[in-house]
Amino acid sequence: MSFPLTFWDIGLWIAVIALILLAKSEILSPYYGETGIVIEENRLRIVALFFAMLFMLIALIRVYQIIAFP
Amino acid sequence: MNISDPLQLLIFIIIVNVLVTAVGMHIAIMMANISVIGITGGILLLLGAIALTSSILYEFSILAYIGLGLTLWGALLLFIRPTRYVKSKILNSMTVSPLTTIHQVMKALNYKGKGVYLPPRYLKAFRGGTIFVPYRKEVIIPPIEEVAQEKVFLRNPKGVCLNPPGLSLANLYEDELGRDFTMVDLDYLQNNLPKLFIEGLKIAQDFEMGMEGDMIRARITGTVCGELCKEARKTPNICSLGCPLCSSIAIVLARATEKPIIIEKTNLSTDDKTVEAYYRILGTISPMGFPSEEQGVAPVEVSAPSKPTERHPSYLLPSLVGLLLAAFGSTILAWVGWLTWYDITTWSKSLALIFFGPRTGEAISLGIGMKVIYYLLIGSTLLLSGLYAFFRKRLRKV
């Protein structure tokens, strides 16, 4: 009985989520004239940035592994 | 059961997340019902938790992906649900009557002067605000000691002191920006009010503020107060006091410049979407003396007070989205570059073979015949779209 996903599987999932959220937060931005949407877009953007940063961190770990343990 | 094929894995992740995103966003945006969104978010969270637990019990990776997706979007739905909102029609209907009532009272009492927004040094509370309306049809600035008595009707000069219609709105601006406007300068307002109006409060689709001598022009495009402005303008001279929006900007200017402000004129575009308001900064007044009428209305050189301009860190958020998309693209392009370099130096491959050659059996093919050229295109697209998002606002300002 263990969690079936590895660290790298979750990294890929985070990458997809981050891209979806980043694109979504940009499309819903009031700067495109979308001022009538009633969700908290700032919070959506913060979550998108959080996932993007997380993925960048995972990518850095991967890069480090490739360089340190070729 | 585990998904071993990278293609299945990738497609599965995308389908699950796009579907849950679409449903979640549709509920959040279209229904705009806070209780429904809350319930939906809670249900998604619960289902996600059940799926995650089941995936651990049965070691089933598909359930794990479903669980992660549902949990994320459930939590996100609860996190981004809207605050309570009011339809602009209701807001306008509620605001027009008190405005016209004030005007009727002023007219009945025969007060004809133009409203002067007084700076905070006249007041006991810095978050307060007072508009002085002279009895005669002229611009007069009352002495501080008269206003400080907090009387409504002043005798010398004859006039009336009222709470401006936009006082609460101006205080809301301060709360949102987290700054006391008496501690900022006009540069700060020029830099931060557009962000507040467009992104923070969504009052307008665009906001510009410019200075010409002692005049300040505020241009508010696509404002929710357009209809209110149109209704209010049916009452003559009401703009000398100002609607809540124009009045709030006048209060903000009075606080930042520490000088009295009058609303010189306002224009409404024919499509009722753009409001242009012109504010005049009145001359410096001595704290004790009573300025003559000439002193009051004489144009003066406006120099921005020498206070430091600071921006809230959240100002960087929209730029970060573009930067991160560009970073994703750069990462992929860097990886493509490294792969190309490796293939050339180690295997002496030609560029055509590297970019267009089949990668069957290698992890990068993802089981769907992915070639290096595809990664190059994906990376370039992400990089360019990120850069476009980053520079878009700056280009618009130019």
Please give the domain count of chain A: 1
Described by the principal axes of the CA atoms, the overall outline of chain A is elongated
Helix-strand pattern of chain A, N to C? HH
Which structural class should the secondary elements of chain A be placed in? mainly alpha
General description of the model:
By secondary structure, chain A is mainly α. Chain A has one domain (7-68). Chain A has 2 helices and no strands. Chain A has helices at residues 7-27, 41-68. Chain B has helices at residues 6-31, 34-58, 61-79, 88-108, 144-148, 167-177, 186-200, 226-232, 244-257, 293-297, 317-347, 351-356, 372-397; strands at 116-118, 130-134, 153-154, 159-162, 206-212, 215-221, 261-268, 274-281. In chain B, strand 7 (261-268) and strand 8 (274-281) form a beta hairpin. The longest helix of chain B is centred in the C-terminal third of the chain and has 31 residues, at 317-347. Chains A and B meet through helix 1 and helix 2 of A and helix 1, helix 2, helix 3, helix 7 and helix 11 of B.
What descriptive keywords fit this protein?
heterodimer, A: 70 residues, mainly alpha, 0% strand, B: 398 residues, alpha+beta, 3 domains, 13 helices, 53% helix
Write a short abstract of this structure:
Chain A is mainly α and 70 residues long. Chain A has helices at 7-27, 41-68. In chain B, strands 3-4-2-1-7-8-6-5 form an eight-stranded antiparallel sheet.
Write the topology of this structure.
The complex is a heterodimer of chains A (70) and B (398).
Chain A: H1 7-27, H2 41-68
Helix pairs in contact in A: 1-2
Chain B: H1 6-31, H2 34-58, H3 61-79, H4 88-108, E1 116-118, E2 130-134, H5 144-148, E3 153-154, E4 159-162, H6 167-177, H7 186-200, E5 206-212, E6 215-221, H8 226-232, H9 244-257, E7 261-268, E8 274-281, H10 293-297, H11 317-347, H12 351-356, H13 372-397
Antiparallel strand pairs in B: 1-2, 1-7, 2-4, 3-4, 5-6, 6-8, 7-8
Helix pairs in contact in B: 1-2, 1-3, 2-3, 4-8, 6-9, 11-13
